Structure prediction request, 342 residues.
Amino acid sequence: MLVVMQSHATEEEVRAVCARIEALGFRAHPIPGAARTAIGITGNSGAMDIGSLESMPGVAECIQVSKPYKLVSRDAKPENTVVRVPAPCGDVTFGGQAIAIIAGPCAIETREQALTIAEQVRHAGARLFRGGAFKPRTSPYSFQGLGLAGLEILAEVRDRFGMGIVTEAVDNESLDLVEEHADVIQIGARNMQNFSLLKRAGRARKPVLLKRGLSATLDEFLMAAEYILSEGNYNVILCERGVRTFTDHTRNTLDLSVIPAVQRLSHLPIIVDPSHGTGRRNKVLPLSRAAVAVGADGIIAEVHHDPDRALSDGPQSILPGEFARLVEEVRAIASVLGRTVG
Ligand code: PEP
Ligand code: MN
Prediction:
């Protein structure tokens, strides 16, 4: 259910409607828009009698939202959400006119490795640095990440290069630590339906980068985002990172057609991960170009200065020089679309 307020409704009227919704045992989510405020209603206490809300001062109409997701839907908020990430070198936005770039290794391996890569990707134009301190690996015998020591290295990258930090939380305990150290909390593909982790991310005060699950449908992807918004965190960036198909020429199949599909249904920004999406270094550049052409709000790419010796995802990591070229080509394509990179 969605309560649409009149364009001239006062803040007091919005507050009164929210109070009535909460008094009825539901949760109210005021969503300010350019023209008017909408109030999303969530909760599982059964059907709601809308009669008492429709007659309240300032209310234009009450709409039954037929989609299973409500807060992430464009019905709740027709205009794009712009997620702002305050990095030391300046705010980076997702969902506006600018295309955001996140770059760095799959995993933080050593201080030298992270600082070397950070310096080069920063020089090439990236303002957000990625790198896992907690790694969700298929094998328990593979490198699991440096944990807190990795987060401390990321903090040094932040201080030295002014870059904002994007790093993954794999469970509720690591989320506490990641929330403290990072600028964006990444929820990985394997955790897209870890509902307790999604709820915890919804209570975090940092933006969340939510990756699509390995076999998630569009509805499942948006419902995962709904979990985060329903707990009060509206700063969610979606990420297409490839899904499992029968192909064997790539690690996954990068589903670029999901970008316009998401944009039609949801106001949330969506970016593309061409690294996990293909699993092959030589496909990262062409699919980054395609991602921008199809309308993605950003790119997250794995970059390593010595990929043959990387402790994870070396075959899909591009070299710093290749990343510099990626930024230039993405910039050229963005300009055709009236967008910038930054
Ligand atoms: C990653 O970004 O390194 C990662 C593990 O991604 P995904 O969850 O998409 O596999
Ligand atoms: Mn990786």
Summary: Residues 2-63 form a domain with the Alpha-Beta Plaits fold (CATH 3.30.70.1140). The first strand starts at residue 2 and ends at 5.
